[in-house]
Amino acid sequence: MKIDVHILATCLNPAMLDTTLLVFKTLRTGFPDANVKVWENALTPEQSMRLRLMAGSFIESIMLPQRIAHDAWIAGLLDRSTTPFWILDTDVIFFEKAPEPSPQDFLFGRFEPAFLEPWTKTNRVSRLHTALLYFDPIAIRIKILEWAKLWQPKDFPFSPSFELIQQHFVPQGVDRPPMFYDTCAGLYQAIGGTSFTESQNHTFEHLHCGTYSDRIQKALPDASRAREVVSKNIANARGLFDAQEDYYRNHPANMVEN
Prior knowledge:
Layout: E1 4-9, H1 17-21, H2 27-30, E2 35-41, H3 45-55, E3 59-64, H4 70-80, E4 85-88, E5 92-94, E6 107-112, E7 115-117, E8 122-124, E9 127-135, H5 137-150, E10 168-170, E11 179-181, H6 185-191, E12 194-195, H7 198-201, E13 204-206, H8 221-232, H9 240-250
Parallel strand pairs: 1-2, 1-4, 2-3, 6-12, 8-11
Antiparallel strand pairs: 4-9, 5-13, 6-9, 7-8, 10-11
């Protein structure tokens, strides 16, 4: 059975529409036979037309009249889906076929370590990155229930909440940067998952912040430079993963230790 690949196509700056369309240049390299569903996230008619011309007839297009947040979109997919699926960012370039999950994988993606991020000045919590991420929704829902039961004893009279998908901050003290749980970080921290291998990580490259790099130029100028060179030639994307790994090593997290 062909697997579903979901893409949320968002364009925050019309001048950067090329990044919203970038993934379609190599999509069939990564997923030759998948059912591709593109969610047009409040795109204008002109943007929608250009996307469909770029994507071709092999996609299913779903129009969203009102813009939805990325984390809310993923939460909805997990709630509604009964079969495994992938999510894919629009600023991804494939050089080979996407990694293949094994039968026991329920959450499968590129590991992003904890790091101190200069734009928000927060400590990002480790996760599997949502640029290219595989979900088995049934297995995940079971594991979430199992995890929640671990911390709620019999006759526990309270109902503490927890957030697994949505982005959120967790304070670490008045004068310390908070922990930033980026999208799906809570899920990974609660139930774990399987990281891509080194060779699997090199089957594709990811621009990081490609669709909004104009907003972070002062804090992360390398993101804008990467977008510029890749827009000229997608072959220039080679090496972005290794550069990002160096970035993480050079920006270690500063978490509070109990």
